[in-house]
What does this fold into?
Amino acid sequence: MKTKSTNKTEEYRNGITVHLVRICGDVEHIKEKVVENNKHLRHINGRLRKAENNITAIKTIGSTLTIVIGIVLTWLGIQE
It folds into this structure.
């Protein structure tokens, strides 16, 4: 009887070991993908920051032109 239970115990341990090895491999794969995703997000964030700065510059130029044109039109209206 002891040999049967010992064999079953060994089979169970071997099965658990196989599952743990698979899980360990999956965890490593997940870690690699997370690192890749972080690198990609940093790249995208840099592009987004650049685009936001460009939009701010365009808004500033537009606001300045609107104010200047308004002042010029008002000045021309007052002189007539």
The mean pLDDT is 90. The chain has one helix and no strands. Residues 1-80 form one domain. The longest helix spans residues 2-79.
